[in-house]
Design brief:
By secondary structure, this protein is of the alpha+beta class. It has a domain at about 75-205: endopeptidase domain like (from Nostoc punctiforme) (endopeptidase fold (from Nostoc punctiforme)), CATH 3.90.1720. Helices cover about 35% and strands about 20% of the residues. The chain contains six helices and seven strands, in the order αββαααββββαβα. The strands form two sheets. The chain has a five-stranded antiparallel sheet. A two-stranded antiparallel sheet has the order 1-2. β5 and β6 form a beta hairpin. The longest helix has 28 residues, at about 5-30. The model is unreliable at about 25-35 and about 45-75 (pLDDT under 50).
Length: about 200
């Protein structure tokens, strides 16, 4: 058989093989997901581009806002105010109790409270424990045992300044200015809590 007779058959076989190769490649392309994006050619005409990517069965975890720990922020002015309060209390520890006194060396319970806040830059009228209760706003439950909250005892006849959940500062009739724990004796005599309003400049964060 001459080469001239074999050439048409070989040509047909080559064309069939090429067609089969193109068809397989096209199916492979369609089996992969693609992302179509639209861009603009330099001449201003819109063009489409296929960006081939693999899709994972598990989507990437994007943390919600609640998953991200939020830092606790403290206003520098509040810290300075608390430091001034602590310093004023320290200076008065051990001072004797004298009814009606508000310093500088002797105190009764309300006089001690008034004197500490005065030293920290918060002014209000010197009055009795019962008047403080009437004039100052109540606190939320979570604020009751925060430093600086006023705690009242014995049918509003005694007042002190909360140190923390463990105890408070006050002018004791028998021992003068001291720290006392919230033990069984004091805890069962608590009437409630109040907060001394402080200037907006101190409260600002």
């Amino acid at each position: 058989m001459s080469i001239i007779k074999l050439f048409p058959r070989a040509l047909v076989a080559c064309c069939a093989l090429a067609f089969l190769t193109i068809n397989v490649a096209a199916q492979a392309d369609f089996s992969r997901p693609s992302q179509t994006t639209q861009t603009t050619a330099p001449g201003g005409a819109a063009t489409l581009e296929n960006d081939v990517f693999l899709v994972s069965e598990a989507a990437a975890h994007v943390p919600a806002a609640t998953d991200i720990p939020q830092p606790t922020l403290f206003a520098p002015s509040i810290l300075r105010f608390n430091q001034m309060m602590i310093s004023a209390i320290d200076q008065r520890l051990g001072a004797p109790y004298v009814y009606g006194a508000d310093g500088p060396r002797v105190f009764d319970c309300s006089g001690f409270v008034w004197s500490v806040f005065q030293s920290a830059g918060v002014s209000f009228e010197r009055a009795s424990a019962r008047s403080f209760w009437s004039n100052f706003p109540p606190v939320r439950e979570e604020e009751e045992y925060q430093f600086g909250t006023l705690v009242f005892f014995n049918n509003l006849k005694h007042v002190g300044i909360v140190a923390d959940a463990g105890g408070f500062y006050h002018a004791s009739t028998s021992e003068g200015v001291k720290y006392s724990p919230f033990n069984e004796y004091w805890s069962k005599r608590i009437d409630g809590f109040r907060r001394v309003p402080v200037p907006a400049a101190i409260n600002a964060e």
